[in-house]
Amino acid sequence: MKLTLHVWRQKDRHDAGRMETYPADHVSPDMSFLEMLDEVNEGLIKQGKDPIAFDHDCREGICGSCAMMINGMPHGPERGTTACQLHMRKFNDGEHVYVEPWRARAFPVMRDLVTDRGAFDRIIQAGGFVSVNTGGAPDGNAIPVPKESQERAMDAAACIGCGACVAACKNASAMLFVAAKVSHLGNLPQGQAERRDRALAMVAQQDKEGFGHCTNQYECEAACPKEIGVKFIAQLNRDYIKGTLKLVNKREAGAGDGAG
Ligand code: SF4
Ligand code: FES
């Protein structure tokens, strides 16, 4: 197969960036999208040019590194698939393919297709953990977890933190990511103690990082390579409202004590 690639090239965070065109003449239909980029990069290096910078690690769809827009779609045209798992047989011989980084204020472009997604790490640091002291490692069956809860928790835990949900959203909202992280802990017994506070803290950090608000367009769900459902955003909203009410009640109780 032969393709024409139009790739976003940007030297660093401050460079304005531009699209550049490269031929990809030796593409096997069995290659992954990243292997195709490797091939193009080898050609660029031989010509003494800078290779296209892109993030990757596992190349198995589990680390969330391979963030890139392919033909205007996060991770490309195949549903439920990361860029590293996308095969070139999904494209047609002679096709023009456009490759760009995530576009979101909270994910600044560092170089070419590489964005800084540290904002996600800071959201996790704000509340995506369980801090109750559980003592030594308990027996696996000591805390029975209902099947429905464990399945829901596992579905949410499938989030790989890739950021495709943000890239797909016209508001660059991180709600699907935050909802997945809040819900994976919020569906397990160990996550109950901090459940409401976790939702408040992680949403506050999301706002602080400059992500936009959710306006229920469901683009995130359609783009998510792990097919995380927007039902988790509903769960996040419920936890957030309960957390807010808990705060209001606490403040009112405090005010009442003072008046008394
Ligand atoms: S919710 Fe889906 S799209 Fe968003 S970060 Fe997690 S895996 Fe990626
Ligand atoms: S490189 Fe790990 S998910 Fe694609």
Protein model, in words:
This protein has 260 residues and is α+β, with helices and mostly antiparallel strands. The protein has helices at residues 33-46, 118-127, 147-157, 164-168, 175-186, 195-208, 219-223, 231-259; strands at 3-9, 18-24, 69-70, 73-74, 96-100, 109-111, 114-115. Strands 2-1-5-3-4 form a 5-stranded mixed β-sheet. Strand 6 (109-111) and strand 7 form a beta hairpin. The protein is elongated. The model has no long low-confidence stretch (mean pLDDT 95).
Summarize this structure briefly:
With 260 residues, this protein is of the alpha+beta class. Helices cover 38% and strands 11% of the residues. The strands form 2 sheets. It has a 5-stranded mixed beta sheet. A two-stranded antiparallel ribbon has the order 6-7.
List the helices and strands and how they pair.
Elements: E1 3-9, E2 18-24, H1 33-46, E3 69-70, E4 73-74, E5 96-100, E6 109-111, E7 114-115, H2 118-127, H3 147-157, H4 164-168, H5 175-186, H6 195-208, H7 219-223, H8 231-259
Parallel strand pairs: 1-5
Antiparallel strand pairs: 1-2, 3-4, 3-5, 6-7
Bound molecules: iron/sulfur cluster and FE2/S2 (inorganic) cluster.
Structural class: alpha+beta
The strand order across the widest sheet is 2-1-5-3-4
CA distance, first residue to last residue: 80 Å
By DSSP, the count of extended strands is: 7
**How large is the share of residues in beta strands?**
5-15%
The geometry reads as elongated
Radius of gyration: 22 Å
Which descriptors would you attach to this protein?
five-stranded mixed sheet, 8 helices, elongated, binds iron/sulfur cluster, binds FE2/S2 (inorganic) cluster
